[in-house]
TrEMBL record:
UniProt name for this protein: Electron transfer flavoprotein alpha subunit
Cofactor info, note text: Binds 1 FAD per dimer.
SUPFAM superfamilies listed in its UniProt record: Adenine nucleotide alpha hydrolases-like, DHS-like NAD/FAD-binding domain
InterPro entries per the UniProt record, alphabetical: DHS-like_NAD/FAD-binding_dom, ETF_a/b_N, ETF_a/FixB, ETF_asu_C, Rossmann-like_a/b/a_fold
GO molecular function: electron transfer activity; flavin adenine dinucleotide binding
Tagged with keyword Flavoprotein: yes
Recorded family membership: Belongs to the ETF alpha-subunit/FixB family.
Residues the record lists as binding FAD: 224-225, 238-242, 255-262, 276
Cofactor(s) listed: FAD
Native source organism of the sequence: Ilyobacter polytropus (strain ATCC 51220 / DSM 2926 / LMG 16218 / CuHBu1)
GO biological process terms held by the UniProt record: fatty acid beta-oxidation using acyl-CoA dehydrogenase
Keywords: FAD, Flavoprotein, Plasmid
Domain Electron transfer flavoprotein alpha/beta-subunit N-terminal, residue spans: 4-179
């Protein structure tokens, strides 16, 4: 039986199902431990066997040095076979620290788990998503960070378990001092959007029109890598292997060619509409509806129709 530790971030438990599903793909017979630095976390009847709630100061909840040190200590006591993190901003800072402390390797941004005999093969993108690397680690614990939402809708192998909850605390440190606070603008992460209006090279100079359409449809705006690389939009709304993996109910692709790098970023999309002058563009072959024509004209006409009926 494999003993697996999954690390849950304070204030962000959106991706814990990814980590559970990866654990179950590693082995049907496992013991899943979870560690959370948010004592208010509420996870009941999940596939987690044991949950450790850590009580600590607000600053230490996001102090990667403190978190890494605690994970190192609990591993030394429990000797886990696998340690899993979400490949978020905080997870990408914590995981390397833990790997160095435990003198083991780290496979970052894992997008698939495969089996080759008794070996667990971790698949991750390389060369900006142009290639995929298959990695096997022969040293325990095996550590990996999981690309968010890549395993969201995987079927859980094990039935729901009643989680045993333990509590612990960390003595406040003075290594982090909050000198100022910055209120993040209220923008919705495209990974949690039900409706995405996405633009590509065919919409470059008229990209601002996507925001009007998104507002009319109560959705959000995203973009292809082509626009990001040329500075038309910021990378935080990029869809694709080197951007974000999205699973909206409706994805409208406007002027997007649809390279494999982009298509990989579309996971479990319920409805896909493509508007493209080239009906043979790759993305058209995976679309539910294809509109052959100019994307800008389509946006103008759709906005007019929606606003007329509002």
């Amino acid at each position: 039986m494999n003993k697996i530790l999954i690390c849950l971030e304070a204030g962000n438990t959106n991706y814990y199902e990814d980590l559970i599903n990866v654990s179950n793909k590693i082995s049907e017979k496992n013991e899943i431990w979870a560690i959370s630095f948010d004592e208010k976390i509420d996870i009941k009847n999940s596939n987690i066997d044991k949950l450790i709630k850590i009580k600590c100061s607000q600053a230490d909840k996001y102090n990667n040095k403190v978190i890494a040190e605690y994970i190192k200590e609990i591993h030394c006591n429990e000797n886990f076979d696998y340690v899993l993190f979400s490949a978020t901003v905080l997870g990408r800072m914590i995981a390397p620290r833990v790997a160095m402390a435990l003198d083991t390797g780290l496979c970052a941004d894992v997008t698939e788990i495969e089996k080759n005999g008794e070996d667990i093969v971790m698949v991750r993108p390389a060369f900006e998503g142009k290639l995929f690397a298959s990695i096997v680690c022969d040293k325990k614990p095996v550590m990996m960070s999981i690309r968010p939402l890549m395993f969201k809708n995987e079927k859980n192998i094990n039935s729901k378990k009643i989680t045993k909850i333990y509590e612990d605390s960390i003595t406040p440190t003075d290594s982090v001092v909050i000198q100022d606070r910055y209120k993040k603008p209220k923008t919705k992460d495209i990974r949690s959007s039900d409706i995405l209006i996405s633009g590509g090279s065919g919409i470059k100079d008229q990209f601002a029109k996507l925001y009007t359409l998104a507002d009319n449809l109560d959705g959000n705006v995203s973009a292809s890598r082509w626009l990001v690389d040329r500075g038309y939009v910021k990378r935080d709304i990029q869809v694709g292997q080197s951007g974000k993996i999205v699973s909206p109910k409706l994805y409208i692709a406007l002027g997007i060619h649809g390279t494999s790098q982009h298509v990989v970023g579309l996971k479990n999309v319920q409805h896909l509409i493509s508007v493209n002058k080239n009906k043979n563009a790759p993305i058209c072959f995976i679309s539910d509806v294809v509109v052959e024509g100019d994307a800008v004209t389509f946006i103008d006409m759709l906005n007019q129709r929606i606003e007329k009926n509002m």
